[in-house]
Amino acid sequence: QAPGLARRVRLIPDPVEHFVPPAPAAARKTLGIPEDGRYIGCVGYQDRRKGIDRLIRAFLAAKLAPSDRLLLAGGHAKEIKDLLAGEAANAIAQGRIVSLARYVSDDELCLAVSALDVVCTPYPPDSGHSGSSSIVIHAAGQGRPVLGCDFGWVGDTIRRFGLGTTCNVLDNAAFAQAIEHALQSRGTFTPTEGAQRFAAFHRPENFAAC
Question: What are 182-194's pLDDT values in tens digits?
Fold first, then answer.
């Protein structure tokens, strides 16, 4: 949109350390969360900007097995705490939503990604966020499929590098259906060469080189 500026701009990595993931069950055991079932979730600060409210409501609406779980690992904004204490209270009580509502260290963040079958990055278009997401990079580095918004950097990056699937997160029914499909197909996901190169591009050593 600004050719003069674009000629002076260069893309550099968003540095994310390489992490060799343990098996999901081992990661869950280390985090002290239930080890059974299929997990979808997000890590880091949980707020509306990330679309976590939409993720919770879509998860509640999805047709899933009783052992399917939503993991929210990281500090929670007040609106998310209120939602979990209200609409989602039964799912919390049943253990279907696992909330680690606290600061997570770098190691715990990586383990939380390892614990997931599907990493979800909603980032709705009305949140004002259209840039990069380190959680997408963490997921790519660990070979985890991503379900993300079909908008902005997240949507474009998922499609371009074969990192998973996208959906319209503003449509609760479509989002719920996408969660169902992502969990059902998580065992068939194989990282593409593009996904591996995308993850390698974001290594800290390449950031330093740039």
Answer: 999 998 999 999 9
Residue 91 phi, psi (nearest 5)? -65, -35
Cα radius of gyration (the chain):
17
Query: Which two structure tokens, joined as six digits, stand for 61?
Result: 């609406």
Cα–Cα–Cα angle for 19, 25, 31, rounded to 5 degrees: 70
Interval 9-29: pLDDT, tens:
988 999 999 999 999 999 999
CA distances in angstroms from 186 to 9, 70, 76, 178, 197, listed in the order given: 37, 15, 27, 12, 21
CA distance 176 to 58: 4
Average pLDDT over residues 94-103: 97
CA dihedral over 183, 23, 114, 76, signed as positive or negative: positive
pLDDT (0 to 100) of residue 187: 87
47: left (phi over 0), alpha (psi -120 to 50) or beta: beta
Contacts of 125 by beta carbon, 8 Å cutoff, 6+ apart? 149, 151, 152, 170
List pLDDT tens digits, range 121-147: 999 998 888 788 999 999 999 999 999
Pairing of the two strands 164-167 and 97-100: unpaired
What would the mean pLDDT of 163-181 be, rounded to a whole number?
98
Q: Which two tokens stand for residue 133?
A: 């997401």
- In sequence order, the 6+-apart residues with CB closer than 8 A to the CB of 9 are none
